[in-house]
Design a protein that fits this description.
homotrimer, alpha/beta, UDP N-Acetylglucosamine Acyltransferase, domain 1, 3 domains, ten-stranded parallel β-sheet, 5 helices, 39 strands, 15% helix, Trimer_LpxA-like_sf (chains A, B, C)
Chain lengths: 337, 337, 337
């Protein structure tokens, strides 16, 4: 429990209204009760502000001026909400212990206050930093190094030699360091190219559930600091992703591509291999990036949604687009003559 | 074994031909033997009807009129095939037992006739309804409630507090309730928003292999009744999916979007966040839905497939489409003047 | 360690320069040291050749003519690199042993020199060929047959009755033989169609991390010989894939589709069900294939990437494309009259 005044102090912010209101959790504007604090960041939820029963609302000064109730005043209500929510979430970290069924092979080094769940396997010479939690059914191969205060969720697999920074979260089912997709075509069939690099993940990164990051072919696949990957993403071998870049679910990045810092890559995006995307690029959902991008900004490529009946007619024309354009140019010429 | 006449009785249907033919399994028209029953639902397989060796075929009355052989007559041969196939599949359910390696923590409640496979972990206060099968390597976190007669396949992970209805099937590798992708951008980097909601799955739902359904940020992510999700799907936090909606593989639904009842969402579709799709909407494969849909019907968005050489020419023009359209309007004006 | 001359002999190739240079590993042109061998296959890396410190470089005769340093001469440097890299990778195969925690049920047959990792489960009557490695947390259901010299990585799940050839690699988290997505719509809801076929995988195939291959509905889902699937791919029930076909990550193939031999399917591609793609087809990344393809060659369908501002204007016109085309035809007619 925190009072509104205490919250304001802890966040170095001001408030309006009753500073003594007791708050115990965060909630949405629509469903908050009197002991809960809510927030308004997405304008499409403004309609719920007037009727909210929240004990307090996190608002900008401008929004607060039009609101009669208790408010915590922030330049960035969404960030403030994130910090306040973190305050209220009770620490769910289990008491640090190594489950008796866990298999710890020779040469493993484990820091203080590390938890290892049931049926997890740490192969030879794995090193785990202090305060890290490894849940159940985790497989960590030889020579992997994991930093401090990480959370390795259930069923994660980490292949040999990968290096994970501090405060990294690997969500359930993520696979770090599986073989890159490297094949050379000989006359009789495909020849597998050994994938001997690893994956190196910087501090404060997050890797979503069932996301896969392949190891490098020779050198490493690298995530910088504070890179955030959603679920079901595929990162190919030798990809390099810059600090603070965020990638939404189901996106695929092919091998040896380099993505800059502070990029926002939408969901279901495809990025081909061996290209370079500069810092500060936004790619809209489901776009396909086939060439390097040298200018920051927002990029899109998808055809717009249409009723299927209308789409069928337009799709026929899309196949004739070059002919149509040529005809227009001819008509123009004819008309000008 | 069932005779054709017995099958007709059990399905409350009529038949033509020899009611005494003994049938022991279902099979395709092309490969069926004399003791097998087949069906014709997809017109592209009509060519196999005349030559089939099936002991009987499930047909509409109209199709049966043109067929000399034994037939089970149904208004909906595909549905009848489904029920008949269920009859013939021998119950593969293992004898209910809890494997000695399973870890059952404090406060777990398990109904009658529950199976738990090797190396599965049920954390504190999990509740499992009667007749449910949990296979091997399953991880079920604190306070999860699972209904009756469910099948939780190998390697499924269910995060804290999720609620699963009755007769639900979770296929191998599915992840239920991993953290939603919630981040707020502060000056120094991304701040994680605690994801404290759960996933609530109604009765008779099916979740495909390696599909991920994120927990809600504050409130829950919800699947109604009889929702069927194929493999490799990503469902974001706070998504709500209505009863009987079916989603094909590799589709991604971003956070806080609401999908109505009886929708058919194709494979590889992307649906952005914070929108609403009404009941009875069909989305064709790989379409991107960027706005709410308020009218039932079928929607598409993908560019049509073309030989790459032709595609290259048309793609150049696609980038100039607005210019072309403007030029056409100018020509029209010029010509009318 | 091998000298350049020894390598040339082992690969039945010639070399130029100092045959006595000792080589211990492969490396990239950019980072190779004097005891490492590199290669040049992708022209975009030519810029690194002049400055490389590699002890030797694998080059075509033509490229070698312009290069002063040591070179291994090959008609196909990439294939030669693959074989040389295989030579240098030290065999990481663990000493064959069955971990004491592994669960081996009744009727399991295991060949010579088989490894089984911690917490893996081989259900009844599984058969594993000589020299196969099964890592940790693997679940293999009843009656599965696995050939010789396979590698089944951590967390793989194989469902009942599947058949895996020799020298097959299944990467972490792959799911082989989960239920196909078969549903028939009855008045009250969806009726599940039992999926009683299996998955049959030929020799020398590779299945990527978290890729899913569904079992057939009645007959089998089949991969031929030397089929290579990247990560996060979804293969529907009863799909048939021909020899030497390669599919990149995140592609989805819907049920009952047949893909020929020697096809190259890009990443993020969608292929609808019940169609046939002939031998020798290349599908570019993220294309959607909605009809059978009867001619070998390269096919594409995606809209080209554009700055979002420009894209918005063009997207409006894409919805009007049929109208634009009609107007152009009218103008042409008017002008010709």
């Amino acid at each position: 429990m925190k009072t509104l005044a205490e919250l304001a102090t802890s966040q170095q912010l001001t408030y309006q209204g009753n500073g003594e209101v007791a708050l115990t959790a965060v909630a949405t504007l629509e469903h908050a009760k009197g002991n809960e604090i809510s927030f308004l960041a997405n304008p499409s939820y403004t309609k719920f502000l007037a009727g909210t029963k929240a004990g307090a609302v996190i608002l900008t000064a401008k929004m607060a001026a039009d609101y009669e109730g208790n408010a915590l005043i922030s330049d960035n209500p969404y960030v403030t909400f994130a910090y306040v929510a973190q305050l209220f979430v009770k620490q769910q970290r289990p008491v640090a212990k190594i489950h008796p069924t866990a298999v710890i092979e020779a040469g493993v080094e484990v820091g203080e206050n590390v938890s290892i769940g049931a049926f997890s396997v740490l192969h030879q010479s794995v090193c785990v930093g202090a305060g890290t939690t490894i849940e159940s059914h985790v497989s960590i191969a030889d020579d992997v190094v994991i930093g401090e205060a990480c959370v390795i969720k259930s069923g994660v697999k980490i292949e040999p030699g990968c290096v994970i920074g501090d405060r990294v979260i690997l969500h359930p089912g993520a696979v770090i360091g599986a073989d890159g997709f490297g094949l050379a075509r000989d006359k009789s069939g495909w020849v597998k190219i050994p994938q001997t690099g690893a994956v190196v993940i910087g501090n404060d990164c997050e890797v979503g559930a069932n996301t896969t990051i392949d190891c490098g072919a020779i050198e490493h696949t690298v995530l910088g600091q504070d890179v955030r990957l959603d679920n079901q993403i595929q990162i190919g071998h030798n990809v390099i992703i810059g600090d603070h870049t965020v990638i939404a679910g189901c996106t695929a990045v092919a091998g040896s591509t380099e993505i800059g810092r502070n990029c926002l890559i939408g969901g279901g995006v495809g990025i081909v291999g061996h290209i370079k995307i500069c810092d500060g690029v936004t790619i809209q959902a489901m776009a396909l990036v086939t060439n390097s991008i040298k200018e920051p900004g927002s990029y899109s490529s998808v055809s717009p949604l249409q009723p299927t009946k209308q789409w069928r007619k337009n799709a026929v024309r899309a196949r004739q687009l070059d002919q149509i354009a040529r005809k227009v140019n001819q008509l123009e010429k004819k008309l000008n003559d």
